[in-house]
Amino acid sequence: QVQLVESGGGLVQPGGSLNLSCAASGNFVTINAMAWYRQSPGKRRELVAAITRGGTTRYADAVKGRFTISRDNAKNTVSLQMYSLKPEDTALYLCNADPGYSAPYAWGQGTQVTVSS
Q1: Would you state the pLDDT for residue 72?
Q2: Which of 76, 81, 92, 100 is 20 to 30 A (C-alpha) from 7?
Q3: What distance in Å separates the CA atoms of residue 11 and residue 31, rounded to the nearest whole number?
């Protein structure tokens, strides 16, 4: 069982920055490739960024050049540094396994990001 806890969201003005963190805990040996997702009311959940255990990253076109995903394997954490935030980035952000590598873990509560002036 893997438990995921996201944090770091909040209200920020357009052009601002936020740093999200995801902590994994539970009975596991290693965490494989991980990803950040976001979901807005009325929209499908979308993968925003992903990172393998070795550090290879990929991003959705909408966030390329503005978001940076990173991880600390020793601490079992995955972070998402977000810059130049736009109102359309407003969503509930969640972390979970990269679907290209493994089945999803139980979803956490997520952390809300609101970009508004």
Answers
A1: 93
A2: 100
A3: 30
**Residue 60 structure tokens:** 């959705």
pLDDT band for position 7 (cuts 50, 70, 90): very high
Q: Which residues pair with 80 in a beta bridge?
A: 20, 69
Q: Measured on CA atoms in the order 83, 88, 92, 98, is the torsion positive or negative?
A: negative
- Which residues are CB-contacts of 82 (< 8 A; sequence separation ≥ 6)? 17, 18, 19, 20, 63, 66, 67, 89, 113
Q: Mean of the pLDDT values across residues 35-54?
A: 95
> Are the beta carbons of 116 and 13 closer than 8 angstroms?
yes
